[in-house]
Task: inverse folding
């Protein structure tokens, strides 16, 4: 793939903090016009990667190009041309929604007419135009997140970084935010670098993804490829109601990855190359009274859980 | 850069009026009323000719140091808004200069407000056919004192407060530091030999204000330039650890 089609390219990116290697040999490519999911558990290195890509942290080794600019020598240009929503929304609670947007529109040097028109366009899109004069301190978290997202889009960037944008939101707010975000992305034609540990979010929004844990990229590719379970099948087990103790016993086994676990069934994936019959024997050994065993479709969750389990040390 | 400074300046003024609690606003208003009205009225119709009158120029910077300085950087960090600013188009220098300019303008605004109140209070109380006001020369001296003191206080305040974890801790640190600076300075002055003091006073009385500005101006500007450099360095360190 040529560099022209890439919004982000990192090569062997490593970052060492005192006593800890925050990133190890991270190499990722993000294509232009796509939504890229950066998946990983808490403390995996997702936010640190964003900070390196924005030029806020310098890598110890390796290099990164964002929109063609080197993150060390061209960090100001990267920040000038990107939109960013970090872990905290960075909104000023004592100011109104309109003033918050006005401030950032001024930072991006939009003219007075442009500021007015753009703020109206974006606030209307997310249904908050009527509430623009309200101080946002009393707004719900979902509304604030929406406001923070449109703040990223004020200057019409080609790339936006979103660091766990739906974290802490209730399901209704999450769906609403996701719909608005997808609508805006379609409208504005931006590429998105999305960090999250919400697998559902990645499945619904992303074209491609990478999985990171302990600063290391464990897998990367198109979402359809990641979901495809190649060498290890996933099975749907139905069983008699299980006690919490049995569920705990199942979860403790290193040779099995258990997913979507309820009292009367679960999905399972063997972590070893043992035959299916052996895997079923292992399940029985945990005290599960198995009713049926069927092949299940591969899921991102399955892949994610197994790769995190497989490559953790 | 100019756009960036203007944007920050715009936000700081807007936020300042909403950010302060009613208690803080009342404290500020009370101080302004005491220094702007009560003090000059008590001192009498010669207020504008008294040496103490020039202390009005120092009130703005002192009020600025105790009310707004800590909030500029530590407050933004505490409210998690600084990270977003750093990830935006703003440069480190733009952020620091925008906030310093706001602090200095706040100090100047307070000083001008106090002077206007002084004029009104003195004339309401002591007007006898002649409008009482300070001389043009006094305006230059006040502007000089206010400008340099405001910058000094702002820079010292920003440098010291950056080490604080919270706004409250920063305010405490600043109050203690300013008291210590004033105490040490007065102790040092007291320790100077009388002959030196007399020589200095004679020189001060004989030298013209223009000459004094010409001598002091470049010296102070050099000191402030170094302090500004150090502020940029501290800010970079602070932002790296966010």
Result:
């Amino acid at each position: 793939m040529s560099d022209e089609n890439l919004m982000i390219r990192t090569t062997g990116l490593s970052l060492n903090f005192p006593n800890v290697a925050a990133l190890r040999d991270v190499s990722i490519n993000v294509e232009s016009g796509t939504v890229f999911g950066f998946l990983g558990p808490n403390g995996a290195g997702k936010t640190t990667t964003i900070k390196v890509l924005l030029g806020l942290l310098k890598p110890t080794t390796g290099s990164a190009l964002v929109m063609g600019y080197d993150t060390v020598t061209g960090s100001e240009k990267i920040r000038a041309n990107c939109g960013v929503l970090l872990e905290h929304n960075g909104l000023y609670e004592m100011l109104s929604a309109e003033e918050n947007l006005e401030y950032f529109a001024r930072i991006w040097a939009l003219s007075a007419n442009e500021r007015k028109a753009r703020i109206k366009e974006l606030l209307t899109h997310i249904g908050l135009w009527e509430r623009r004069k309200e101080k946002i301190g009393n707004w719900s978290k979902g509304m604030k997140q929406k406001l923070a997202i449109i703040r990223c889009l004020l200057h019409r960037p080609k790339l936006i970084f979103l660091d766990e944008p739906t974290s802490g939101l209730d399901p209704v707010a999450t769906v609403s935010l996701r719909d608005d975000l997808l609508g805006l992305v379609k409208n504005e034609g931006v590429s998105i670098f999305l960090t999250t540990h919400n697998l559902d979010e990645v499945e619904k929004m992303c074209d491609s993804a990478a999985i990171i844990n302990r600063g290391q990229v464990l897998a990367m590719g198109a979402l359809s490829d990641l979901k495809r379970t190649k060498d290890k099948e996933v099975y749907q087990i139905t069983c008699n109601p299980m006690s919490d103790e049995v569920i705990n016993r199942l979860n403790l086994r290193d040779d099995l990855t258990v997913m979507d676990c309820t009292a009367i069934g679960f999905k399972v994936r063997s972590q070893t190359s043992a035959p299916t019959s052996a895997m079923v024997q292992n399940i029985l050994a945990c005290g599960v009274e198995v009713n049926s065993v069927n092949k299940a479709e591969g899921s991102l969750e399955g892949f994610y859980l197994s790769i995190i389990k497989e490559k953790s040390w | 850069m100019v756009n960036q400074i203007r944007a920050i300046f715009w936000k700081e003024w807007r936020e300042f009026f909403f950010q302060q609690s009613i208690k803080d606003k009342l404290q500020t208003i009370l101080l302004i009323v005491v220094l702007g009205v009560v003090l000059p009225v008590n001192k009498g119709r010669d207020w504008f000719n008294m040496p103490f009158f020039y202390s009005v120029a120092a009130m703005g910077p002192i009020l600025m140091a105790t009310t707004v300085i800590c909030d500029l950087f530590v407050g933004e960090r505490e409210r998690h808004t600084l990270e977003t600013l750093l990830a935006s188009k703003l440069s480190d220098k733009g952020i620091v200069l925008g906030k310093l300019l706001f602090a200095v303008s706040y100090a100047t605004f307070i000083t001008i407000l106090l002077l206007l109140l002084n004029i009104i209070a003195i004339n309401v109380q002591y007007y006898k056919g002649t409008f009482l006001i300070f001389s043009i020369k006094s305006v230059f001296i006040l502007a000089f004192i206010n400008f340099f003191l405001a910058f000094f206080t702002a820079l010292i305040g920003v440098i010291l407060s950056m080490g604080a974890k919270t706004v409250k801790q920063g305010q405490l640190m600043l109050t203690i530091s300013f008291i210590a600076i004033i105490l040490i300075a007065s102790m040092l002055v007291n320790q100077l030999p009388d002959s030196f003091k007399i020589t200095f006073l004679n020189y001060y009385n004989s030298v013209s204000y223009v000459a004094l500005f010409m001598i002091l101006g470049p010296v102070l500007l050099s000191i402030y330039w170094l302090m500004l450099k150090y502020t940029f360095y501290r800010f970079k360190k602070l932002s790296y650890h966010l």
